[in-house]
Amino acid sequence: MATFQRHRITPWLLLAPQLAVVAVFFFWPAVQGLYQSLFAQDAFGLGSDFVGLQNFIDVLEDSEFLNSLLITVVFTLAVAVLSLGIALLLAVQADRVIRGARFYRTLLIWPYAVAPAVAAVLWNFMFDPSLGVISHALEWLGIHWDHRVNGHQALLLVIIACVWVQVSYNLVFFLAGLQAIPQSLLEAATIDAAGPWRRFWSVTFPLLSPTAFFLLVTNTTYAFFETFGAIDATTQGGPGGSTRTLIYKIFQDGFVGLDFGHSAAQSVMLMLVVGLLTLIQFRYIERKVHY
Questions:
Q1: Of the four, 47, 97, 186, 254, which is 20 to 30 A from 59 by CA?
Q2: Does residue 48 sit in helix, strand or coil?
Q3: In this structure, which long-range contacts are made by residues 269-277, counting pairs with CB atoms below 8 Å and at least 24 apart in sequence?
Q4: Residue 86 forms beta bridges with which residues?
Q5: What are the residue ranges of helices labelled H in the chain?
Q6: pLDDT tens-place string over residues 47-86
């Protein structure tokens, strides 16, 4: 009996450190955020009044919040789709290289070692209206670039910087998935007179679908949360709020404006949006994944 009890307790003891980290750094802040969203607090934290759901009502009636939500949706779709598409294209091409394959793959993976904020500064410098190489090339083509006053260009700049970093992350997984596909399946498709395009969509991509689904979920999370540094290093949410995503608006309202109640309410709503998107991905998109 003692041995049985010891075997029942051992797994929980091994899981205890990880469970403690999750409880302290995820569940406890989430509970605190939900609690603070129900109160109106003064900027110095000296007092608070219970207001129930009023913070959520104020947020939903705020045009700036709705605009940030729209920007977040566009930004997330652009980053996820472009980073996945470009990474898949590069992975397919890199997988075909025979001579110097390791060298090319290393070059393609290097950008992931650059921090998002540093990558954003690099792209900001290249697109600088006065000194940037790319902005001068665009000017020569008749395109005036100034992301400091043009909101669409500012959003495009942040998207390019975030995609450039994330492509390398996706490339590693796609390359691993491509190399795990048995060559006999591709050879059989070739014998059946299937062309390169048909082989890719009928054989290669279905076998890559578990990897693609995993990367879709991680890229969506990345676009929602991990792009804060890129936005803060380049545009600070401007011009005119054109690059102010939800995560950056929460930061501005809570840490700059010291409006803790509304900031907490927005963080709870962001958590619900991400949870809903993840549920939709697992409920509908995962059905088309071939394991």
A1: 47
A2: strand
A3: 269/56, 269/59, 270/224, 270/246, 271/30, 271/33, 273/69, 273/246, 274/220, 274/221, 274/224, 277/220
A4: none
A5: 2-22, 28-36, 54-60, 63-96, 101-109, 116-126, 133-140, 151-179, 183-191, 196-199, 205-221, 228-234, 246-251, 260-283
A6: 777 888 888 888 888 888 889 989 999 999 999 999 999 9
